[in-house]
């Protein structure tokens, strides 16, 4: 007698209650799995993008906004800071190295960031083809971004002012693609990188054109020299990523920047930890709701098996008379419960991956970020064990009652 096949037939004999139990369990599993996926993948992405950055320096404003805009490039910058102030910080004895960032332009919604070679070292960026930028208006970008924007080596494009593609187009200045980077699984994959001089020159040309349109000037050689000197003095950057020589400097130096200068410092690890704590309450609340749904699905499985056992008492007694043992009949209910549980879990995992695709598409369209993970995480294996435990708990009472069933009394009652 094949008890497992008999269990499957019993499940299909009551499709409505079986489908309801599976749906409830899959809903709870999918919610928890999706939260685990988003939390884990997002945290991995954020940790990966920190790359040992100890501090970010920028204009006064929100520290979290400074981190999101300068490290993750998903927010507007807090403003610009003078280049001379940034150089003074760079020369401080506590600073190991610093990476300047300049941005304020985009191409098709993707940021054009002015930086230097240290940025490539920071994110361990490798060239797939071409070369790194050397002259003004030369750019490099990641292979996936190049494919998305349909850009190849030596292609030219014009940027738009601002961080959205609806900004004013700089039609008089063309960037040229000099290099394509290998995929790095970092924020650099979503950026178009160029030299700081390119950004300064781009905006210098723009400001100069406006000035010529508004007023007429006579320039002599001495005045040109003074203007060039003043222009260098007026140069600004958006932010600066800093790595300290010693971990102990992270206590003292940020406080000095915030209290003694007109700049602002923010510690990425602290701000991101604070951000996840804010998210944590919402995640825990939704997780509790999802676990309640899983418990309700367990109750549903219990009711289904209990009612099924009462309806099939006579059939179960006949199976006993035909040679079926008490253990086999009890196992039949266990198999039914486990089958419903595992099917519900698998559907829930599938739904969570579909949900992640929607979340990833939303983040990509809104922030140019992509979240992809189809692997089963360790937390999800624990979720499977919890689901199986609830399934076994649901079939415990019906299985015991079947085991203790009096064959003679059951047959005589019928």
Could you characterize the architecture of this molecule?
The protein has 414 residues and is an alpha+beta fold. The protein has 2 domains: 3-46 and 279-413, no CATH class; 55-266, no CATH class. It is built from 14 helices and 12 strands. The strands form 2 sheets. Strands 3-4-9-6-8-7 form a 6-stranded mixed β-barrel. Strands 2-10 form a two-stranded antiparallel sheet. Helix 1 (3-13) packs across helix 12 (326-367). The longest helix is centred in the last third of the chain and has 44 residues, at 268-311.
Describe the structure concisely.
With 414 residues, this protein is α+β, with helices and mostly antiparallel strands. Helix content is 60%, strand content 16%.
Computed Rg: 32 Å
The number of E-state strands comes to: 12
Mean pLDDT: 82
Distance between the termini: 24 Å
Number of helices: 14
The helix-strand sequence is HHEHEHEEHEEHEEEHHEEHEHHHHH
Work out the strand percent. Answer: 15-25%
Helix fraction bin: 55-70%
């Amino acid at each position: 007698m094949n008890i497992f096949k008999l269990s499957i037939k019993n499940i299909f004999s009551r499709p409505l209650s079986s489908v309801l139990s599976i749906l409830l369990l899959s809903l709870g599993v999918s919610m928890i799995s999706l939260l685990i996926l988003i939390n884990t993948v997002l945290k991995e992405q954020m940790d990966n993008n920190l790359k040992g950055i100890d501090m970010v320096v920028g204009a006064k404003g929100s520290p979290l906004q400074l981190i999101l805009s300068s490290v993750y490039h998903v927010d507007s910058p807090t403003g610009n800071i003078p280049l001379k102030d940034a150089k003074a910080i760079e020369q401080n004895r506590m600073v190991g190295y610093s990476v300047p960032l300049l941005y304020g332009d985009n191409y098709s919604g993707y940021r054009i960031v002015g930086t230097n070679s240290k940025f490539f070292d920071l994110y361990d960026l490798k060239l797939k083809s071409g070369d790194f930028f050397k002259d003004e208006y030369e750019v490099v970008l990641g292979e996936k971004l190049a494919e998305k924007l349909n850009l190849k080596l030596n292609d030219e494009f014009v940027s738009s002012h601002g961080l959205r593609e609806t900004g004013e187009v700089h039609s008089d200045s063309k960037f040229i693609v000099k290099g394509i980077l290998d995929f790095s699984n970092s924020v650099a994959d979503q950026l178009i990188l160029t030299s700081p001089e390119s950004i300064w020159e781009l905006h210098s040309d723009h400001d100069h054109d406006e000035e010529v349109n508004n007023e007429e000037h006579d320039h002599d050689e001495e005045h040109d020299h003074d203007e060039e000197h003043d222009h260098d003095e007026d140069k600004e950057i958006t932010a600066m990523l800093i790595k300290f020589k010693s971990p102990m400097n992270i206590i003292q130096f940020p406080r000095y920047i915030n209290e003694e200068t007109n700049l602002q410092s923010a510690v990425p690890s602290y701000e991101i930890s604070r951000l996840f704590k804010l998210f944590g309450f919402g995640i825990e609340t939704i997780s509790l709701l999802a676990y309640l749904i899983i418990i309700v699905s367990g109750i549903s499985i219990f009711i289904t098996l209990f009612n099924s056992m009462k309806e099939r008492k006579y059939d179960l007694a006949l199976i006993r008379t035909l040679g079926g043992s008490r253990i086999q009949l009890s196992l039949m209910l266990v198999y039914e419960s486990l089958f419903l549980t595992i099917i519900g879990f698998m559907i829930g995992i599938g739904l969570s991956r579909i949900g992640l695709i929607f979340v990833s598409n939303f983040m990509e369209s809104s922030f140019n970020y992509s979240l992809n993970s189809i692997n089963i995480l360790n937390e999800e294996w624990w979720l499977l064990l919890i689901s199986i435990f609830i399934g076994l708990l649901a079939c415990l009472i019906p299985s015991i009652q079947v085991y203790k069933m009096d064959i003679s009394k059951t047959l005589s009652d019928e």
